[in-house]
Amino acid sequence: MANRLSKIVTRTGDKGTTGLADGTRAASQCHIARTVTRRAERELVALSHLEEPPVNGLPYLNRLSDLLFVLSRVLNRGEGQTETLWKR
Prior knowledge:
single chain, 65% helix
């Protein structure tokens, strides 16, 4: 998954900017899936205080979240959808 993510980031540009969860239906569904993934990651961190988590559990969930974020950007760009960037 990390290799695939790196290839997508290389092809599309920097993943560092944060866009709001909007755009096409497919991109929005990626954002929802990312939210669920982040929730699972937080739950696994909480569980790790009680017992040993799976060795690759946290890194996997973290990379999956990154992949879903980048994929949402790719899907939006593919449909000509402009991104709404998050501003502090």
